[in-house]
Amino acid sequence: MSDMLHIVCPYCDTTNRMPRARMDDAAKCGSCHQRLFTGRPITLDDPTRFTRHAERNDIPLLIDFWAEWCGPCHAMAPVFEQAAAQLEPKVRLARTNTEAASAIATRFAIRSIPCMVLVLHGGEIARIAGAMPLQRLLDWTRQHLGSGTVAA
Q1: Helix segments in 25-70, DSSP class H
Q2: Given this model, what pLDDT does residue 149 score?
Q3: Among residues 9, 29, 73, 115, which one is catalytic?
Q4: What is the pLDDT along the chain (152 residues), one digit of tens a residue?
Q5: Sheet with strand 42-43: strands edge to edge
Q6: Could you confirm whether 32 is annotated as catalytic?
Q7: How many domains does the chain have?
Q8: Is the link from the previous residue into 10 a cis peptide, with omega within 30 of 0?
Q9: Contacts of 32 (CB under 8 A, 6+ apart)
Q10: What is the CATH number for 83?
């Protein structure tokens, strides 16, 4: 594993290089000077922005695919917020609205929502569908991080 990581800023989408050993520090973007890790999911509905975060981060991206009309998606939203606070900075969490970002949903062949997809460098590691409690989401995510990615 390299000692340097590429981390995409959740505010300005600039790719930052940072030492792996400093991930737990309050790292800031070299361009906009905002914090690189906020402990909250980011919204990735724009295809260009989505691709940047999914492909250029050296940490996994956990995406919650959802829709406004979906009741279970709304039930999952606070759980996903809580998971972000516990999984960052080892994992970046993002929410993608399948109606606002239908091309992204098609790219990932999303058939049911809510659907959580874990990706690294643009490649899918794992997916799970349906609303779930926080501990199940955390356990599922950590289980899939042991296969050659940054361990949470």
Answers
A1: 47-56
A2: 45
A3: 73
A4: 568 999 999 999 999 999 988 887 889 999 999 999 999 999 999 999 999 999 999 999 999 999 999 999 999 999 999 999 999 999 999 999 999 999 999 999 999 999 999 999 999 999 999 999 999 999 999 999 875 444 44
A5: 42-43, 92-97, 61-66, 115-120, 123-129
A6: no
A7: 1
A8: no
A9: 9, 11, 12, 14
A10: 3.40.30.10
Domain coverage including residue 79: 38-145
What predicted TM-score, i.e. pTM, was given to this entire model? 0.92
Domain assignment of residue 16, yes or no: no
Residue 120 structure tokens: 């690294």
In a domain, 150, yes or no: no
Residue 20 maps to a domain: no
Q: What letter represents residue 82's amino acid?
A: Q
Instruction: Give 23's contacts (C-beta < 8 A, 6+ positions apart).
Output: 5, 37, 89, 90
Q: What is the C-alpha to C-alpha distance for residues 132 and 136, in angstroms, rounded to an integer?
A: 6
- At residue 25, the pLDDT reads 81
Is 130 a member of any domain? yes
Q: Which two tokens stand for residue 81?
A: 């917020």
Q: What is the pLDDT of residue 21?
A: 84
Residue 115 a catalytic site member: no
Q: What letter does residue 19 receive in the DSSP assignment?
A: E
